[in-house]
Amino acid sequence: MDIDAGTNESFRGGAGVRAGYGGDTVRASATARVWNVFSTDNEVDILADVPLGISDDGMEGVYGDVSGQVDVNLSTNTTLYLKGGILFSDDVTKPNASGGFAVYW
Predict the structure, then answer these.
(1) 10-37, pLDDT tens digit by residue?
(2) Are 66 and 89 in contact (CB under 8 A)?
(3) How many structural domains are present in the chain?
(4) Pick from 57, 43, 46, 49: which is nearest to 94 by CA?
(5) Is the distance from CB of 44 to CB of 78 less than 8 angstroms?
(6) Alpha-carbon gap, residue 3 to 45, rounded angstroms
(7) Of 65, 66, 64, 62, nearest to 36 (Cα)?
(8) Domain coverage including residue 73
C-alpha cells in the first residue's frame, strides 16, 4: 500500500466573535465564526489493490462554526476543560467535542 499526500494547499479566511465569563473557579466562553475557503487543493490518495481516495475536509465556499468551552479550576494547579462545537455549511455538518485536564507545576 502506498500513500500519496498530494499538494495539500488551501487558503481560508474568517471572522467571528467571542464572549466569555471568567470567575475564580469557572471560566466559560462561546465563539461564532464565518469562514470562506478561497482555494483548496487538499487530497490524500491511498493506493492499494483498488485506489482509495480520501479527499479534504469537504469544507468549500462559505461555512460557519459555533463552539463553547468551560474551564473549571479543580485546585491551584489543576484545570479541567470541556469543549464542544459544530462546523456547518449547506452540505456538511461536523460536530466535535473534546475534554481533558491540565496540571501546572
Answers:
(1) 788 999 999 999 988 999 999 999 999 8
(2) no
(3) 1
(4) 57
(5) no
(6) 6
(7) 62
(8) 2-103
**Which amino acid, 97?**
A
d(CA 90, CA 104): 42
Residue 53: its pLDDT value, please?
52
From edge to edge, which strands make up the β-sheet containing 43-47? Answer: 2-4, 43-47, 51-55
Asked if residue 14 lies in contact with residue 59, where contact means CB atoms within 8 angstroms, the answer is: no
Q: What is the pLDDT of residue 10?
A: 75
Per-position DSSP letters for the chain, written without gaps between them:
-EEE----EEEEEEEEEEEEEE-SSEEEEEEEEEEEEEEEE-EEEEESSSEEEEE-----EEEEEEEEEEEEEEETTEEEEEEEEEEE-SS-EEEEEEEEEEE--
